[in-house]
Amino acid sequence: PILYSYFRSSCSWRVRIALALKGISYDLVPVNLIKDGGQQFSAEFKALNPMQQVPALKIDGITLSQSLAIINYLEETHPNPRLLPQDPKKRAQVRMIADHIVSGIQPLQNLSVLKQMGEKKMEWAQNCITSGFQALEQILQHTAGRYCVGDEVSMADLCLVPQVANAERFKVDMGPYPTITRINKSLLELEAFKISHPSRQPDTPAELRA
């Protein structure tokens, strides 16, 4: 497999965690979203992913984009360890939390939107994340065990950790979100989350390395 990734991309990080958890080795091709006006806009990369976004994963003779589609494919082809619970209610909760983050928070504060916000980008990102986290904190109080849903790492957790990293980068006050903070701390202790961390990627700038 070949993963096209950017060290700081939260969507790429979700997929790196899934690959690490499932023990799938891969080659990483960095796509710098800032340099050269954004390498994702090259003709070469557009041919790979017409949406001109990372991640993209070449695997088993196909190319997939969209992090949840990739994670679902990995789940179906490499079922262990599972990232979706067997219980239908818990599985629905995992998908709900994942969607809450990947549809309701992350796209509103991603690079392409922030570019258009000019000087207000920090304030905009903080507002988007804060309103999303207020809802998420409430949801997690009903679903969480050690992790987002019960005590097993799931697809929801793969979405949570990169989003908390975004929140910290945009200086969001995490005080009001004790459940999110606690779960994030537990997850960051796991090896798969450590090795996939933005501070430990081949394309991480020297000053941001762990």
Q: What is the element layout, followed by pairings?
A:
Blueprint: E1 2-5, H1 10-21, E2 27-30, H2 43-48, E3 56-59, E4 62-65, H3 67-77, H4 88-104, H5 111-117, H6 121-143, H7 155-169, H8 178-187, H9 191-195
Task: Explain how this protein is built.
The protein is an alpha+beta fold and 210 residues long. It folds into two domains: 2-81, 3-Layer(aba) Sandwich (Glutaredoxin), CATH 3.40.30; 88-193, Glutathione S-transferase Yfyf (Class Pi), Chain A, domain 2. Helices cover 50% and strands 8% of the residues. The protein contains nine helices and four strands, in the order E-H-E-H-E-E-H-H-H-H-H-H-H. It has helices at residues 10-21, 43-48, 67-77, 88-104, 111-117, 121-143, 155-169, 178-187, 191-195, and strands at residues 2-5, 27-30, 56-59, 62-65. Strands 2-1-3-4 form a four-stranded mixed β-sheet, with helices on one face. Strand 3 (56-59) and strand 4 form a beta hairpin. The longest helix has 23 residues, at 121-143. The radius of gyration is 16 Å and the shape is globular. The two termini are 26 Å apart. The mean pLDDT is 97.
| Beta-strand content bin | 5-15%
| Helical residues, percent | 40-55%
Cα-atom radius of gyration: 16 Å
User: In the CATH hierarchy, what is the architecture of the largest domain at level 2?
Assistant: Up-down Bundle
CATH fold description of the largest domain: Glutathione S-transferase Yfyf (Class Pi), Chain A, domain 2
Order of helices and strands: EHEHEEHHHHHHH
**What is the mean predicted local confidence, pLDDT?**
97
* Unreliable runs: none
What's the number of domains? 2
Q: Shape from CA axes?
A: globular
The number of strands is 4
What gap, in angstroms, lies between the N and C termini?
Answer: 26 Å
Q: Can you tell me the CATH class of the largest domain?
A: Mainly Alpha
Main pleated sheet = 4 strands, mixed
Strands of the biggest beta sheet: in what spatial order?
Answer: 2-1-3-4
Count the DSSP helices.
Answer: 9
Classify the secondary structure makeup into a structural class.
alpha+beta
